[in-house]
Structure formats: C-alpha cells, structure tokens
Write a structure and sequence with these properties.
alpha+beta, about 120 residues, elongated, three-stranded antiparallel sheet
C-alpha cells in the first residue's frame, strides 16, 4: 500500500487488513512488520532514513529502510527483539522455496505431495 505516513494519524488504514502489514528486509532475512511501526523502526535503527525528504510513503520508507538495514548488517534477530519489546510476536517470512516445509502450511493441508514420475516427488 502507498498510504502516507505524513498525515496526523501517521497511517491511513487501507480497506484490506493486508495493507496493515509488510515485509521488511534485514541483513539475513525478511520480517513481517506492522506498517504503522515503520517510522518507529526507522527511528530506532536508521534515523537518517526519516531525514530523507524524498521518503514520503510507507512503500518508500520500507524500501529505503530495508536498504539501510542490509547495509548496516541489522539482523532479523535484532528486529524480533524490537517487535517483542513492543508486545508483538516476531513473524519470520518463509522463503518461497521453503513454504512447503513450513509446519503451519503442512498442518493446514496446503501441501500435497505426489509422485512426479521421472522428476521424482513434487
């Protein structure tokens, strides 16, 4: 979502609840975070991003913050500590090629394995 964080409430919720969350890249992995926490995350880990006047939307903030976090070597564990300090459970983003191995995905029956013939199990 491209809702601005420069308005009075700091966030304009979208119609879809998914607009409330985003992926933020750390040095070692991506982390699911609340969009409304992006300015506070930036203040804690990369305040220089907030001083950049070209960053005017949550999409721009997420992108720039992710770039700086990777450059600084900020790890997902550091972001998890920040989230836990704010009463939020850390939610790691599962890499696309590992989704089928995720316990919740397997538990919900979202994965069906079958014999792929000459290519093996799929």
């Amino acid at each position: 979502s491209s809702h601005t964080f420069m308005d009075e409430q700091h966030v304009r919720p979208g119609e879809n609840v998914a607009d409330s969350f985003t992926l933020l890249c750390a040095a070692d992995a991506s982390v699911v975070v609340l969009v409304s926490l992006l300015p506070e995350l930036a203040e804690a880990f990369a305040p220089e991003v907030l001083r950049n006047t070209t960053v005017a939307s949550h999409i721009q903030l997420r992108t720039r913050l992710g770039e700086v976090l990777r450059r600084k070597g900020t790890t997902s564990a550091e972001l998890y500590k920040f989230l836990e300090a704010h009463g939020l459970p850390p939610i790691p983003a599962v890499p696309g090629d590992e989704v089928h191995l995720d316990a919740q995905v397997r538990h919900s029956g979202s994965v069906w394995e079958r014999d792929g013939g000459h290519v093996g199990p799929v």
